[in-house]
Amino acid sequence: MIYALATVELHDGARDAFLAEFRKVVPLVRAEDGCIEYGSTVDLPTSIPIQVPPRDNVVVIVEKWRDLSALEAHAVAPHMTPYRESIKDYVVQITAQILVPTDDSE
User: Fold this and answer.
1) 65, 74 in Cβ contact below 8 A?
2) What does DSSP say about strands 35-41 and 91-99: parallel, antiparallel, or unpaired?
């Protein structure tokens, strides 16, 4: 299993419009072979001292995939091209972290 965290930096004031487009593609992604989890998150203001300051212009997409090949297939899935086109005016940049669980049993 692998995790992907896609951090989407948005133009000021574009978060609601971005999320409206994102919600349209979610059912299609969740139906992809190998998708275990796929959803959007935003910063929650807290008093936890190590937390970064809340970012109003950032959405983090939390993904869990069966394996790297499923994630790679997702990147080229037919519905992703029109989705990327629909969000391009809202996005400043997207960065990704691809992660694997550690063996915590030792």
Assistant:
1) yes
2) unpaired
